[in-house]
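User: I'm curious whether this sequence folds into something compact or stays loose and floppy. Could you predict its structure so I can see for myself?
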Amino acid sequence: MQIQSFFSKSQEAMKKTIDRLKNELVSIRTGRASSAVIETIKVESYGSLMPINQLAGISIVDAKTIEIRPWDASQLGAIEKAILKTDIGMTPVNDGKIIRISVPPLTGETRREIAKSISRMAEDFRVAVRNERRVLVEGIKKLEKDKEITEDDRKKFETDAQRVTNDYIKQIDESIALKEKEVMQI
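Assistant: Here's the prediction. I'll summarize afterward.
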């Protein structure tokens, strides 16, 4: 039945939205060392832009220190420059062999600003999920218009679409709440 195809496509798109949200949340600085904050920074290397994690090993030495060990020592300068350019609020220290980044503690004001930006981000992802529901409902209404389903079926499928949407919105809210809690912890 065509309705299953509509639901499958919508759920897949909603799941991808949740995955994108989680990827973005991981890269938000929380005051603790996390390789996710820097591993996707693009570095000009060998004539192209490459993520740091393809040029070096990244490790967390302790709760406040990130260590970057390039596989090719000639890339140290390029990696350091790329980190400085991104304005992540952390300064790399290059000792000629490795780069260390000390993660400074977040101030109360910075924590509140990050929490606000997380809330704004959450709303964008909620809108994306709702847009997928809108596309699904339009498909359901078209099926009714084309006499492929009855009015009762349309109402039932719309209710199902709303239930699925609510589940994904709940996942967004839970992910955001966890990240906000992590940011606000001192």
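Summary: The first helix runs from residue 2 to 26. The helical segments are 2-26, 76-86, 108-145, 151-184.
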